[in-house]
Amino acid sequence: MANAQCAGEDASITICNIPDPANRNINLFNLLGGTPTPGGTWTDLQESRALNLSTGVLNVWGVNESDTYVFIYTVNNASCADNVATVTVTIGGYAGISNPNASACDDNSSVNLFQFLGNFPNPQLNGSWNDDSGSGALRGNFLDATVSGLGTFSFTYTMPAIGSCSAVSATVDVTVHPAPEPGEPSDLILCDSDDMSIYTNVNLLDYLFGQDPGGKWSESGTSELSSPQDTFINVQNIYNTFGPGEYGFTYTVQPSHPVCNQKSATIKVIIEKQLDFTGSTLVVASDICEDEIGRATFVATLTQGLENIPNGSYNLQYQITGPIPSGNTIVVRFENGVTTFPIPAISFPLVGAYTVRIINIHETTGYNACEHIIGDISDVLNVYPLPKINAGTLTIDNACQDTDVEVRLSGNTNLTDGDYRITYNLSGSNTAPSRQVVMTVVGGIGTFIIPGNLLHNQGSTTIVITHIINLQTLCENLASLSQSFTIFPKPDVSNVRVTINDVCENQPVIANFSGFGILTSIQITYSLTGANTASGIVTIAAVNGLATFTIPANQLLNTGTTTFTVSEIVNNETSCGVSNLSITDSFTIHKLPEIPIVNNMEFCQSENATVADLLPNGASYIWYATESGTSPLSNDTALVSGNYYVAAVSPFGCVSQKGRVAVTITNLPAPTLETDGQNFCGLDSPAPTLADLSANVNGTGTIVWYDALHNGNLLPNSQVLQDSMTYYGFDSSAVSGCISENALVVTVSLSHCGEDEYELMIPDGFSPNGDGINDTFNIPNIEFLFPDFTLEIYNRYGNVMYKGNRNTPDWDGRSNQSTIIDGVAPNGVYFYIVNFNKGKKPAKQGRLYLNR
């Protein structure tokens, strides 16, 4: 049985007479020497694509190139001494059949010469063509008949010799015939405003040049031609009947040989319509201000006048006159009598008035036969100047508190007479942001009023004009023109406020003042009442109306609520002050909480303890990494062995002194497995258990086993081991109660059984009749003794019925090799081969009887 699997002996063959039908298909399997086993696999080493890999039959006519090809036959059986054989096939050349009667047309630049050599079989591709006539028109395997000219030319295709096969040739004689010449047409292009009375008897032959005689004329519906030989048309009649349009008259010439196609030339009579744009309007949007130059977008809209303009694309030419003349020609599209188009911002580079005028319009798809009526189509676009006042002069007289103040603007400005909206800010002793007022300019001088209700406070006030807009042109500009003036007399402390935040014991108490306005050096008189009583006078500095004062610690000896009261404020710069005030705020000094009571703590490494596991804990406690630390630890901070510090925190947020806790983290290492400690024999009795596996493991305490690395089930030591199952072992300590953080991962093998200790019994038959007794062919315990075994079952004809291994169910009498045989195996004798695939143990063959 083993020798029957061999691939046979190498073979070779040479095929020279390719067109012989007997050489069309060659069975390579029949060429093999020896006794090759059927059912092997073929390999087309050079990818000839002509070999049927299933049958081993080579289609010689399907090989495109002559050559020597090697094909490999392989039988996949480890017991074969030689399971590979080669068949070498030398295929001679075939050039096709000579053809003396080929034809081509002289307008064909790519005539494939292979089309004349026949195709049963096809000529091979690795030969070479020769220009026997020296035409100079051979391009590879193509004839360029536009180069050869008229006549008959010979071309020979030669396949080179190979091996014992001689070179072969085939010759093609190609006659090149002339193509018909319909001539070069010239179009007649007119405008409907032209005088067409001079085109009432147009001879089409006057518009055709170089044509062959004897052709026929045809047209597209004008009925101007009375016969295919008629060459005269009446263009005036065409226009009167059909109006503007495009009309074709075609001259067709037949070829002298059918290898050439007929050819035609068409003369077009084109009558374009003159368009009238009279009354059309142009709107260019929109006027801009000087600061928009170069960045504004401009869109022009052209609307038809009295005459409808057909939808479509047009070349539009416009001209711009003004400070900088320019113009352009662009493509636009009319839809329903309207077109819009952009005008580049660069067309309006300076202040001034620009006139945009349409100069010309023509259809993009037309012939420009007509000069369309345009008339005057224009619009004016203005670029207005920005109002500029920064070089001007503001004049303001000093005034009293709460009175109106007139502001006069004069000097170097570009303001024309009219109304302007001014935006200004007041700063200094009086502040008013973004105030607006209308300023009237007459003769270059503008005036406006600052109302007195904006001037309550004494001292220097500065007005800054920040923005100006021309109410006629709406052009606006930023400004930075300022002037200072003085308002008298008294300071205003009506907005002064004091705010003092609650604090913890021993923290500084700060009084925060606001509302001082322009005051900078201030003296205050204050008093303390409540939990603490005291009084004092202090000078403080204010910035932008804000100031702070730290109450002396010796005046704040008690916890509890204290009220701070300001009774007098004096401006040190003017010695002006306000008394009999009652500006107050109350604050509380909170007592510090007691130091927490703590104990040292221990954790297992596997517990992954964090700060959240420390005691005491909760919202009333804060943990730190060091005694002097100020950054609290987050609850998810992992613990390590060492000291941690905890402080109590009151509901207000006062923090006590810190208590120290010593933390110990116990870590057990993962257990280790002895060499081959995972290997057992599944045939042992009693069956190996987890206790046997633990005996092969080294650890510091008791080994515990789980069925998963995370969230697994604890397994008892009596658990019988399963082949190829993975177990997870952890070391555990009875003293600390900890288990190792990492596990020993063990995949058990039960196939380590001594061959000499157990006898392998192969049954000699089975009865697959479905009675539940001996229904399959089964070799007991073979998966433990020979885990890599393979099993093959053959019928008496040598066909494979079944292939199996430890992962395939036992043979139930049905074939699982559908490529060989299918269905239920009949009663009878079958043969098996068991390949043990272990050590050097040879395969075992035998017979078995199937009886249903």
Question: Secondary-structure map with pairings?
Answer:
Elements: E1 11-15, E2 25-27, H1 28-31, E3 41-44, E4 57-59, E5 67-74, E6 84-91, E7 99-105, E8 111-112, E9 128-131, E10 138-139, E11 142-143, H2 145-148, E12 151-159, E13 168-177, E14 184-185, E15 188-191, E16 202-203, E17 208-209, E18 216-219, E19 232-233, H3 235-242, E20 245-253, E21 263-272, E22 281-285, E23 288-289, E24 298-303, E25 312-321, E26 326-334, E27 338-343, E28 352-363, E29 378-384, E30 392-396, E31 399-400, E32 405-411, E33 418-428, E34 432-442, E35 445-450, E36 459-470, E37 476-488, E38 497-500, E39 503-504, E40 510-514, E41 521-530, E42 534-541, E43 547-550, E44 560-571, E45 576-578, E46 583-590, E47 601-604, E48 621-624, E49 642-649, E50 655-666, E51 672-673, H4 690-694, E52 697-698, E53 702-706, E54 714-715, E55 726-732, E56 744-747, E57 765-766, H5 782-785, E58 790-794, E59 800-805, E60 828-835, E61 844-850
Parallel strand pairs: 1-6, 7-13, 15-21, 23-29, 31-37, 39-46, 47-50, 57-61
Antiparallel strand pairs: 2-4, 3-5, 5-6, 8-11, 9-12, 10-11, 12-13, 14-17, 16-19, 18-20, 20-21, 22-24, 24-27, 25-26, 25-28, 28-29, 30-32, 32-35, 33-34, 33-36, 34-35, 36-37, 38-40, 40-43, 41-42, 41-44, 44-45, 44-46, 48-49, 49-50, 51-52, 53-54, 53-55, 55-56, 58-59, 58-60, 60-61
What's the short version?
The chain is mainly β and 852 residues long.
Describe the protein in words:
The protein has 852 residues and is mainly β. It is 3% helix and 42% strand. It has 5 helices and 61 strands. Strands 30-32-35-34-33-36-37-31 form an 8-stranded mixed β-sheet, with no helix packed on it. Strands 39, 41, 42, 44, 45 and 46 form a 6-stranded mixed β-sheet that branches. Strand 33 and strand 34 (432-442) form a beta hairpin. It is flat, with a radius of gyration of 55 Å. Mean pLDDT is 92; it is low at 1-5.
